[in-house]
């Protein structure tokens, strides 16, 4: 066995009495362990929240969205649609006309986001798991239907089994003076509610309707859309597909992935995760300062031993390495225990949902977690850096104590 490691182990494990230095070392281990465990758990929770948001977006948004660089609508010619459908990796192409509108049902009114979609929208089967009641139906027997979000249903007290009360959608006419007293100021469409869905609160004001209804309501031309949504075939490389689609649509249109559409949210999660990681790292550093004091006092206590080692031919490098190893034993023992406990808590949370969200309207019951090997590696590297930082000066002092 390496002599400096053996001596460091003897100093740590073979003390004849529990001195203040021993208790300080134990406190250092506990501090590093608790800090490491907290860092692993918190970073895993942030990873879980990011993954949860991706699952939420995947339930409603397409893999790729084509939108204009300027303005809010563009002309989607039949030639462009044909090229896009023939692009490798494209499974479904959905034309979308979307804008804010006013919804009226019975005596209630509310502002909604009306999303007009092609008939093939329901073939994506994204809303199948989000349906609360009714059915997913947009058009049948020349009757136009609407699928409303839970928030709209709650605001207007909509009943999906009431086929006699229509959902009336109003949109201001272009060039008309906006006035609720002027009946000609709004375009109007009446729809029958077929179903109610719930995904997450950010989608609570959406109403899905047939594309021709939305175009007529907004005053769009037959080929005008606000966006084209592309659903890719399973296993398609999204980065390559995005580049290919961008080449097809040209410079006047933008192709954005699902992550691109929500880049601000992901950036906010990343920044918050970074600041929390820095805060917990600082706490671990503060806890590791006890290692500095513990080793400093150990150097004083073992001064005679150090002199004997020098008399026996030990070098400064060997003495320095003894106390660096002592600090490593203290820190890495606590870090290893913290990693094991942190990983164990994350696994238990994922399997059994130990800590709930505490929100009735949440789509999941417990906090989501996802372990990432990069976080484990980063935490390990951080502990090693802190160990060297806090152990170096006492070890150097021991190495310089030769008379």
TrEMBL record:
What GO cellular component entries does it have? plasma membrane protein complex
Keyword hit for Transmembrane helix: yes
Q: Does the keyword Glycoprotein apply?
A: no
Q: Cellular location of this protein? A: Cell membrane
Q: How does it sit in the membrane?
A: Multi-pass membrane protein
Membrane-crossing ranges are 20-46, 274-300, 321-345, 376-395
Q: Which GO terms describe its biological process?
A: lipoprotein localization to outer membrane
Q: Which UniProt keywords apply?
A: Cell membrane, Lipoprotein, Membrane, Transmembrane, Transmembrane helix
Determine the domain of life of the protein's source.
Answer: Bacteria
The record's section on PANTHER family has: LIPOPROTEIN-RELEASING SYSTEM TRANSMEMBRANE PROTEIN LOLE (PTHR30489:SF0)
Family of this protein: Belongs to the ABC-4 integral membrane protein family. LolC/E subfamily.
Q: Please report the name of this protein according to its UniProt entry.
A: Lipoprotein-releasing system permease protein
Q: Which organism is it from?
A: Spirosoma endophyticum
């Amino acid at each position: 066995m390496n002599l400096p490691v053996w001596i460091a182990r003897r100093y740590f494990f073979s003390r004849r009495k529990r001195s203040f230095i021993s208790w300080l070392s134990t406190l250092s281990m506990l501090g590093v362990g608790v800090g490491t465990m907290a860092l692993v758990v918190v970073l895993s929770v942030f990873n879980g929240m990011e993954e949860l948001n991706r699952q939420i977006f995947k339930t409603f948004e397409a893999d790729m969205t084509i939108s204009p660089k300027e303005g809010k609508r563009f002309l989607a010619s039949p030639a462009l649609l044909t090229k896009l459908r023939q692009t490798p990796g494209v499974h479904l192409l959905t034309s979308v006309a979307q804008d804010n509108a006013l919804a009226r049902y019975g005596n209630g009114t509310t502002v909604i986001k009306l999303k007009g979609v092609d008939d093939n929208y329901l073939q994506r089967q994204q809303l199948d798991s989000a349906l609360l009641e009714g059915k997913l139906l947009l058009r049948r027997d020349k009757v136009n239907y609407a699928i409303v979000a839970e928030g709209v249903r709650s605001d207007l007290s909509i009943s999906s089994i009431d086929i006699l009360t229509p959902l009336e959608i109003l949109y201001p006419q272009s060039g008309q003076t906006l006035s609720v007293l002027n009946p000609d100021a709004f375009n109007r469409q009446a729809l029958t509610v077929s179903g109610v869905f719930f995904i997450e609160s950010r989608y609570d004001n959406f109403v899905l309707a047939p594309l021709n209804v939305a175009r007529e309501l907004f005053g769009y031309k037959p080929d005008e859309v606000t966006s084209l949504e592309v659903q890719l075939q399973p296993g398609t490389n999204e980065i390559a597909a995005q580049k290919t689609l961008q080449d097809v649509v040209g410079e006047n249109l933008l192709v954005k992935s699902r992550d691109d559409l929500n880049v601000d949210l992901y950036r906010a999660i990343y920044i918050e995760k970074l600041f929390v990681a820095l805060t917990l790292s600082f706490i671990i550093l503060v806890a590791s300062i006890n290692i500095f004091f513990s080793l400093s006092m150990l150097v004083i206590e073992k001064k005679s031993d150090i002199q004997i080692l020098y008399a026996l031919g030990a070098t400064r490098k060997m003495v320095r390495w003894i106390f660096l190893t002592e600090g490593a034993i203290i820190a890495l023992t606590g870090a290893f225990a913290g990693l094991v406990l942190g990983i164990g808590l994350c696994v238990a949370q994922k399997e059994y949902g130990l800590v709930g969200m505490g929100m009735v309207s949440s789509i999941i019951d417990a906090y989501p977690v996802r372990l990432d090997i990069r976080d484990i590696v980063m935490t390990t590297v951080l502990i090693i850096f802190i160990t060297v930082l806090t152990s170096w000066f006492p070890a150097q002092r021991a190495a310089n104590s030769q008379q």
